[in-house]
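Have a close read of the entry that follows and walk me through the local backbone shapes. See right below:
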Amino acid sequence: MSIDPQASDEKLARWLQQGVHGAFDEIMSRYKGRLYAFVCRYVADREEAYDLVQESFINIYQKIHLYDANRKFSTWAFQVALNKCRDWGRKKSLTRMLPFSSLGSPEENFDFLDNIADQGADPEHALMGKTELENLAYLVAKLPEKLKVPLIMCVLEDLSQEECANILGVSQKTVETRIYRARKKLSEAYP
């Protein structure tokens, strides 16, 4: 059976549950970038993020029988990745996830900011912009996890509040409130 590239994620997941060859490859193709971006922002270490995404896909493959076809596949996939991030945090023995950790050099921890900074700006303004982004990243790192995760998912990963609520197992109003509180804390610390 050939895989229809137009098939829904949920259909691909059902095919994977049935052992259809190629379904997993198509799922990986669709989700590798999105999951990597999410995990990278969560752990702020590209190599760790790469490993965690690989572990997430292994988990998706091994646990596909647990996927409920009545739910959106994307919600389930992000939930698997989020759980891998949380496991990683426990393994690191951190009480809070520090996605923009200052454990290494700034180049190691903030290289993703190069992709955000205005590449057309003159060097002085580009450096000021990068410094401001680094400060903002540090403030996001200091947020409690329950505020940080919805902020990353909805603002940086562009997931809907409904998707975020499904992933976190909370109401959509809770996600909205947490994002509001996260933004308020950031605006108080970074006027």
Q: What stands out?
A: Residues 106 and 134 are 9 Å apart (CA to CA). The radius of gyration is 18 Å. Residues 144-191 form one domain.
